[in-house]
Amino acid sequence: MKKLLFVVVSAALLITGCGDKDDTAGETLDKAIENTKEMASDAADAISETASDAYDATADAASDAADAVSETASDAADTVSGTASDANDATADAASDAADAVSDAADEEVDKMKTN
């Protein structure tokens, strides 16, 4: 009898200790709400970070474009300035050559008058 009582008590303790506690519907809903809040917060953080990265990339691209435009404008101004300077030098040389030609022609005419 003692052995039977011991087996029955042991089985009762074993069954009591091994039982799973099922969550109530309210507890399950609370867990689902908490998980949803965490996922929404994580998603909001990810979206914020992505938007910040996109803003930084756009700002960098705009700055690079502005630098490129400025450099191109500077190069164009240098080219125009150089071309204008070259044209000015060529005009001065042509004017000097024309003056020399007129002076030479005048000297020839003076020499012709002296000999006549």
Name the descriptors.
mainly alpha; 2 helices
Describe this structure in words.
The protein has 116 residues and is mainly alpha-helical. Helix content is 93%, strand content 0%. The longest helix has 91 residues, at 25-115. It is rod-shaped, with a radius of gyration of 50 Å. The model has no long low-confidence stretch (mean pLDDT 81).
N- and C-termini, Cα separation? 170 Å
Q: What percentage of residues falls in helices of 4 or more residues?
A: over 70%
Low-confidence stretches are: none
Percent range for β-strand residues: under 5%
* Computed structural class: mainly alpha
From the alpha carbons, calculate the radius of gyration and give it in angstroms: 50 Å
Shape: rod-shaped
Give the assembly state of these chains: single chain
How is the biggest beta sheet arranged? none
Strands, total number: 0
Number of helices: 2
Element-by-element helix/strand order: HH
Average predicted confidence as pLDDT:
81
Tell me briefly what this model is:
This protein is an all-alpha fold and 116 residues long. The chain is built from two helices and no strands. It has helices spanning 2-18, 25-115.
